Amino acid sequence: MAAMVMRAACVRAWLAGLLLAAGLQSVPAQSILPAAVSGSPAASAPRASDPLRRDTPRKAIVGFSRAMQGGDLALAERYAQLTRRQRPEAEELLVGLNELMDRYLLQPVAEISDLPEGALGDGLPPDRERVGPLRVGELSFPIELVRVDDGGLRVWLVTSGTLAAVPEVLAQASPQWLERTLPTMLSRERLFGFSMAHVVIWFASLLLPLLALHALLRLARRTLGRHGAATWLDKVHWPLVIVAALSVHLLAVAFFGSTLSFRIAYRRVVVLLLVAALAWALNRLLGLLFAQARARLQGDQRTGARSLLLLGERLLKLLLGLAAGLGMLALVGLDIRTTLAGLGLVGFAVALGARKTIENILGGVMLLGDRVLAVGDECKVSGRQGKVEDITLRSVRIRTREQSLLSIPAGELASADIENYRTRGKFLASSILRLSHRTRAEQIRQVRDGIEALLRNNAMVEQGSASIRLVGLGGPAVELELFAYFLTADAGRFGAEREQLLLQVAAVVEQAGASFAGPDLPVRA
How does pLDDT run across 406-416, given as a tens digit for each residue? Predict the structure, then answer.
């Protein structure tokens, strides 16, 4: 029996090797969420490291499983506390223990202590640790580990008492639910060392939730009709389906009946995909939330707030991508503290070499914070007039009247002359009306009074400041100064209203019998 199990283990090692070759086998055996994230005081103390990675209970369990999966009994013995009487039957005991762990150890590896001292609050002696228990028939079988000294190193080993109980517990083992439920033929056929029953359950646990959740969300979309929530479902449909399907699949991995070492490696792969899917879903949700917030900020007076939301969205999405990347690095075993320290050094070096870029980014943030410019504003920057199309983390893009796209680094705008027409609540119409020098005084009064009536009766003209005054008599022309503010922030409407007023002024001059001065008159400054 032991020989058959060992041969099957060697075959199964081929498939698991594909996963481990991606970088999973070379990293320290740890939980799906490594202890490097939380950190521990013990981790900071310098000490010699065990080359077999038996420093913690979790690493000892995973190291033993990997040694057995690779068919290396001599290595597997280094993870067990074998007595002299147990040495002759070591192979049978180790193979039996490995089979029990593969079939019945459903406890998540993340729950096994990864501290060198083990879990101190479990009521056991400081040098003892329990894993499980394994539910085998009516038996409850905990795997007990002991911390011993091995050549000056403090390591964790499976106790001899646990090994002694293996034959009795193994005798209580019964066919798994897969073997009892699915046809016997599927349990006999093998694919890469796994029974076809395991392969069927593997596909079913992934495809069935995917199809079921897809159908459920489509039904919910049809039920909502044109409701606003339906749009949200359309945008996040596939990210939500993939996240939920991977979550269900991750929970079902423990019941595949595959080897413990394979489950550890495969779970890491699934969690990596799950983190990527979660980042995708959160990215979509952020886009929807910010789009809705910008839609509520309607009106010309809120363009600055909308532009600030746009910049905030981009910053949050950048941070989300960075967090997802760091999380994925942690899942493959990298120490996040070391990674963050490295990023800090790289960031410092980049900051020294990219001062202008950082200056532009900060300039863009200050522009939006001070509400100097916003997307959609008509403005003039250093003599160039146009409409702001976009404000990025680095530059401001302006579409000029010639329809060319002008990109100005945000840092340069701090020292540039900026005239923002959006801040105008009114437009000034100021003109010098030049009448012929032959115009009589009575005609001048008629023209002046007529224009005053026009200004007074125009609802678009600010009444408190509008005026028409005689400002010059000498020379070849009689000069009247027209001064009026039009109460509009729309440059196009201002142009149309001013044109209408000037046409009415021309009609008043004609009605008074006067005429404008000839074109050869000198222009008054």
Answer: 888 877 776 77
Burial class of residue 118 (count of CB atoms within 10 Å of its CB; 0-12, 13-18, 19+)? buried
Cβ contact 200:134 at 8 Å: no
Torsion angles phi and psi, residue 24, rounded to 5: -80, -30
Q: Are 328 and 276 in contact (CB under 8 A)?
A: yes
| pLDDT tens per residue, range 253-309 | 766 656 777 777 777 888 888 888 899 888 888 888 888 777 777 655 555 566 667
Res. 202 pLDDT band, cuts 50 70 90:
confident
pLDDT digits (tens, 9 = 90+) for 39-50: 444 444 445 688
3-state secondary structure 38-80: HCCHHHHCCCCCCCCCCCCHHHHHHHHHHHHHCCCHHHHHCCE
Q: How confident is the model at residue 343 (pLDDT cuts 50, 70, 90)?
A: low
What is the mean predicted confidence (pLDDT) over 141-167? 91
C-alpha 454 chain-centroid distance: 60
Q: How many other C-beta atoms can be found within 10 angstroms of the C-beta atom of residue 310?
A: 19
The answer for residues whose C-beta is within 8 angstroms of residue 89's C-beta and 6 or more apart is none
Rounded Cα distance between 457 and 452, Å, is: 9
Q: Is 338 helix (H, G, I), strand (E, B) or coil?
A: helix
Q: By C-alpha distance, which of 417, 420, 315, 334 is closest to 375?
A: 420
- Find out whether 375 and 303 touch, Cβ atoms under 8 Å: yes
Which long-range CB contacts under 8 A does 78-83 form with residues at least 24 apart? 78/52, 78/54, 79/52, 79/54, 79/157, 79/158, 80/157, 80/158, 80/160, 80/163, 81/146, 81/148, 81/157, 81/158, 81/159, 81/160, 81/163, 82/160, 82/163, 83/160
- Cα gap 56→156, rounded to integer Å: 6
- Backbone φ and ψ for 122, nearest 5 degrees, come out as -95, 5
Q: Is the pLDDT reported for residue 27 higher than 70?
A: no
Rounded alpha-carbon distances, angstroms, from residue 258 to 152, 193, 341: 36, 9, 38
3-state secondary structure 142-206: EEEEEEEEECCEEEEEECHHHHHCHHHHHHCCCCCHHHHHCCHHHHHCEECCEEHHHHHHHHHHH
Pairing of strands 427-436, 477-486: antiparallel
* Phi, psi of 522, rounded to the nearest 5 degrees: -65, 145
Q: What is the C-alpha radius of gyration for the chain, rounded to an integer number of angstroms? A: 40
Contact of 391 with 398, CB cutoff 8 Å: no
Are residues 109 and 64 in contact, defined by beta-carbon separation less than 8 angstroms?
no
Could you read off the pLDDT of 298-313 as tens digits, one per residue? 655 555 566 667 777 7
